[in-house]
Every structure is written in structure tokens, then in C-alpha cells.
């Protein structure tokens, strides 16, 4: 048996023993995701166990080095693990901004000390992170941020405000962009990590149109941060930020699409008695399946180090527009049933709330307009773009 | 179509009135936030009665203004622009159209005129609008009928004093013959009404009829001849809903164009970005086209022109498509703030979805255009 075949057999056997039956059922909604962290309330004992066993094995982040809590797997082994998980319908053991965003940035830019301190915690789901990028005046124009970070000799002093910080009220730590110099716009930004329990940090939830409230305004009032919590060089945080945004876009582009279920939209909707809708759904499935192929290709390119740095923008744009379309079609198929907001029959207005939530996909992590601008400028090299 | 002086006056009057009394803050948000069971305010409805609006389409000899679909559409556009919740569409347009010329009209018009009566229309039985498929059964019983079956998406159904129910007295599902319209008072025995909140904070009922006993004189028009008044009412309702959709689109896009002139990023007003300019301009054109189609349908209906049927389908489909585009562009161009409940723009998106489904969505009407 080849090594890879052996690995597959071992993985299958291990999953068979360790993946709880309950974690092999499809997630019913976003609420079923496991986020980990100090304050997370597990929905079940199975959910908690699944996160822990996978975390201990390093399989929440299979391709990170074992020294930092990862699984140390090769690209081929990671693929096998994913396939075997999919084969039994295993849920993702951990959803985490630490895994999808901060981790890759730390691996590339962090000091040895920062990597050994933060990465294993991320892998085991012990600390939940939030992202402090946007500010009221700095959204698409992220580099316009104003949050002030002063060097006080033995510590940093942070003052300012962030907005749209997803889950800030439930996060343990924040990775944050701050201004350490006003001399140049991009050249005065630093990438800072700190504990949300630090004195002077406060959050205020913002209610979304979906009725959910996953994000906050976050205020920093004379927050003291230890000197060694800057990632990368001082004033060079923009590089770290951009690198991380690439990963964020990759993550968002896959949300709700391609991943997990291999059923097409047409299959999941069942019989459609409206030919106009049926045609729309058929065309959607063509786009979705083609996009899934592109996702696979893109991941291979990334792993091989061959992806253009601006490609995540193309992927994010295409993936999120597709996901919005998907929910438009689900609403159309659901008719007036799907419009119900909190009846039991509609499971608390699940369809309508999810539909509304997807409208943020083309805004969060950089708007579709901004992604297209990046493609035009950095890939097509169009003048003035 | 060029508006007459009277029509222009009516449009100006309602624009001012809705812009002052029917605002999102005073009406939609207020009723939503206090969890009102009706989803609209009776105070505003009374004010509308004082202005004569509740009886806009009621014949003059019955005390109304005797106006047509065009005038109703002018009012609906202002309703849409302000997202004003009221029973105007269901009561003053759809129910009045169904009741016109019937004995039941004489009974219900005075209450509608005075703003005391709310009417609702019960057509749909599944999640999609399929009027020919109506299966709710009306069986002869005693000196009247017994209704059995269920309806859903009955807008204002739980607040209504009068339910206009489309039922089958003959024929079979798929046929337009054999349908009968009934005027059912709210206190009819054997009726369960479930009040359901929709995404836009309006209310629609699911109603179950279990041998609900109705007097023979509750029939509107002829037994087995319900398709005629039903079709008239649906055409009026669809045109009204199309006009409201046009108002929703126009309101959302006006708010967005304002925002493009205020919000700065990269040291510029975002309205300076040509990508956004072109999309805003495109949208402007689409809304004008949807409005033209809507008023054309209204005009043809008022003239009794045989092309009115097709144009009504065109109007509802086009207004639905355009309004969906408008609200999606609006939220997108507002960026993150557009996703917050605190900002009004998301309310337009929710209203659009409900209105599109009401009396048949864009897909349904596209099919009808094709079949015509
Ligand atoms: C659900 C959700 C979750 C989020 N989570 C987080 C988070 O966890 N942490 C965080 O820091 N931020 C988060 N964000 C913020 C998000 O990154 C910003 O909302 C986004 O970058 C857009 O910025 P803005 O909202 O200020 O919109 P604006 O930048 O004001 O954009 C308004 C409109 O102008 C357009 N526009 C702007 N610039 C250009 C241009 N150059 N060319 C063409 N069009 C342009 C935009 O595309 C948009 O349509 C989240 C947002 C949402 C909606």
C-alpha cells in the first residue's frame, strides 16, 4: 500500500472512532457553527468533543506545522483528510477567524515567540479572535484609518473606534490595524494584537437587517498593549493586513458554495412548477458547478504558490455574487412561505434571514466594486484603475 | 401618458401627505417596534378617509370619488416611496374593485369610506400565486354555503372586518369556471385565523375554514361566476402593487443617490466613481420604464381596453424586477451601513420582496405574458 493509501485507511478508521454521530449531520444554520473560545457555549457535548479531539490531533488546521499545533500534513494528505471528512458528512470542527485569517498572517509575519504563543491556541479553539479593521470613515478606503497607537516606551497606548467588528462582543482577542505614524497613509499602519478584556475596550452590538446581531462598534479608550504584540514591523502593518485580506476573501468566496454539500440547487429545491424559475435555477447550477471547479483549481494554484496575489479578489467577487443569487432563487422557490419572519413553520424566518444576510457577502471583506477594481488594476493592469 | 390637472393635484396632495404623515419613522418603524398586531396604524387610515382616499375607487353615487386605476396608482407610488403601511391596496383597491356593482358593495362601502372597515383578499392556497388552482370548497348548505379549505398570504387577514374569499363551487382545479367570490365577515364561525409576521414587518394570515357557514347573499356577483370579479380585482391589485413597487424603487434609489453625494472614501465622494454613476444612471432608466409600463396598464384598464390584461402582467413583472434591482443596488452602494437595521435602506429591500410575491411574482407574470 502506498503511503497515501495507508494514510487514507488510517484517517478513515480514526474518523470512524472519533467523529460523533451528531457531528455527521448537516448544519441546520449558521448557529450550528462551533467557534470555540473562552465564552463559547457548546450546543452539545458532541460538538465540544469533536472540536477537542480534532484540535489535539492538529486537524483543525491540518496543513500547519505540528510545532504550532497543526497536523503537519502535506497538501496531498490534507486533501485526503478533507475527502474522508466529506465522505462521512463530518461538520467542520471549528469556525474561526484565527484559522482563516490571523493564522496565515502569523505564520508568514509573526516572530517565533508569537507563533508558538498564539498558533496552538488557535488550533485548539481556545481563543476566539475578531478583526478590527474598519472604522466609520475607513471602509473600502481601509488605509484611511485613524485609530491612534502611541509608543509610550514600555507599552503602546491605543485610542479610537472600530466598526463592523464581527462577534467583537464574544471574542477574546482582537487583531487590529492602528495608526503609528501619520507621515504616509499606507506607511503609518501597524498590525496589533490584544486581549479584549484589556481595560478601556468596550463594544456595542449593531443589529442587522436580518435581525441578527453578529457585529459591533468597538471603542478603545487609553488601552495599554504590551510592546511585543505588534506583528511584523512597526509602520509596515499594511503588508500584513493585505496578506490577511487575501485569506479572508478566499474564505468568504467559498461560503455557502462549493463546500460541503455536493447537491445542486435544483436537487435541493425539489420539484419546481414554474418554468421561468426552473430555467434560472438550471443556469445557476451551471455557474455554481463551474465555480466549484474554479475553487478547486484556485486552491491547487495557491498551494503550488502559483496564484496571482490578486486572484482572491476575483474569487471573492464571483463567489459572493453567486451566493447572493442562490438565496434569491431559494426565496423565489419558497414563495410566500419564505417571507414569514418568525413563525415556527418557517423555523424563525430562516430563509428570509439568510437571504438578507447574504447581501453582506458582497460588502464584507471588501466590496465587489473594490474587488473588481483590484482585478482591473493588478491583473489587467488597466491605466488609472 | 400626461397627467390631467386633477390627477396632478391628487399626486401632489398624497405626496405631501405621505411625506409628512406616512413616513418610515412615524409609521413603519413605529408599528414594527411596538409589535403592533396589525402592522399599520388606524389613525393614518382615518386620516386617509378624511382626505377621501379610502373611497377613491368607490363610485360617486355610493359616496366615493369614483376615480380609476390611474389615480389609485398615483397614491400607491407615494405609499411605496415612504413604505407606508396601510390597508389601502387590499381594501380600497382590491376589495372595492371586487365589490363594485354588487349588493355586497352597498353593505361594505360605507365602512370603507369612513375608514372603519378593513378588507382582506384571500386567494392563494400555497406559497405561490396560482389563482386557477383554487381548491377551497364552497358547498351548498342550509340557506347558504359551507367553506372548507385553507388560504395563506392573506395580507391584513387578521385585522380585517371583511374577508373576500375565492372558493370553488364547481369545475375543478386549473379551471377558471366554477369559482365564486364570497364576502365573509370576520366573526363567521368555523374559521381559524393565524396572524403571521412577514419579513417587512407587515402581517398576513393563514386561514383555515372548517365548514364555515356563509349566507347565500354573501356571494359577490354570480355563483360559479367569480372569475370575472376576481380577475378585475386582481388586475387592479397587480397594477396597484406594481405602482407601489415603482415607489419602493424610486424611494430606495433617491436615498442612494443622496448617499453617493455625501459619503467619502479615498478622499472622494463615492458618487464620483464612474462604476457607481453608470449603475445609478442605468437604474434611473429602468425605474422610468417600469413606471411607464405601470401607468400604461392603469390607463388601459381605465379605458376598458382589451390589451389591459397583458399590460398588467408586463407591469407587475417589470416593476418586480426593477424594484429588486433597485433595492439590491441600494444596499450594496450603502456599504456596511446598508446592512444595519438602524438605517432605513434595508427596509426597502424587505418590502420589495413581499410586494413582488403579492398577486404573483415576476416569474408568474412573465409566464402570463408569454402565454397571452
Ligand atoms: C456583515 C459584515 C461583517 C463585517 N465584518 C467586519 C469585521 O469583522 N471587521 C472589520 O474590520 N470590518 C468588517 N466589515 C466591514 C467591511 O469590511 C466594510 O463594510 C467594507 O469594507 C465596506 O466599507 P464601508 O461599509 O465603509 O462602505 P463604503 O466604503 O462607504 O462603500 C460604499 C459604496 O461605495 C463603493 N465604493 C467605495 N470605494 C469605491 C471605489 N474605489 N470604486 C468603486 N466603488 C467604491 C462601495 O463598493 C460601496 O458600494 C463587515 C461588514 C459587514 C457588512
UniProtKB/TrEMBL annotation, chain A:
Q: Reply yes or no: does the keyword Nucleotide-binding apply.
A: no
Q: Which Gene3D superfamilies match?
A: Acyl-CoA dehydrogenase/oxidase, N-terminal domain, Butyryl-CoA Dehydrogenase, subunit A, domain 2, Butyryl-CoA Dehydrogenase, subunit A, domain 3
> Which key words tag this protein in UniProt?
FAD, Flavoprotein, Oxidoreductase
Residue intervals of the Acyl-CoA dehydrogenase/oxidase N-terminal domain: 46-126
For this protein, the parts annotated as crossing the membrane are none
Q: Which residue intervals define the domain Acyl-CoA oxidase/dehydrogenase middle in the entry? A: 130-223
The record's comment on protein family reads:
Belongs to the acyl-CoA dehydrogenase family.
Q: Return the protein name.
A: Acyl-CoA dehydrogenase family protein
Taxonomy, top ranks, is: Bacteria, Pseudomonadati, Pseudomonadota, Alphaproteobacteria, Sphingomonadales
UniProtKB/TrEMBL annotation, chain B:
CDD domains found in the cross-reference section: ACAD
Please provide the record's keywords in A-Z order: FAD, Flavoprotein, Oxidoreductase
Q: What is this protein called?
A: Acyl-CoA/acyl-ACP dehydrogenase
A Pfam family this chain is assigned to: Acyl-CoA_dh_N
Q: What residues does the Acyl-CoA dehydrogenase/oxidase C-terminal domain cover?
A: 225-371
**What cofactor does this one take?**
FAD
Which InterPro entries did the record assign? Acyl-CoA_Oxase/DH_mid-dom, Acyl-CoA_Oxase/DH_mid-dom_sf, AcylCo_DH-like_C, AcylCo_DH/oxidase_C, AcylCoA_DH/ox_N, AcylCoA_DH/ox_N_sf, AcylCoA_DH/oxidase_NM_dom_sf
What organism does the UniProt record list as the source? Sphingomonas glaciei
The Acyl-CoA dehydrogenase/oxidase N-terminal domain covers which part of the protein? 4-116
Q: Where is the Acyl-CoA oxidase/dehydrogenase middle domain?
A: 138-197
Q: Does the keyword RNA-binding apply?
A: no
Keyword Transmembrane carried by entry: no
Q: Which family does it belong to?
A: Belongs to the acyl-CoA dehydrogenase family.
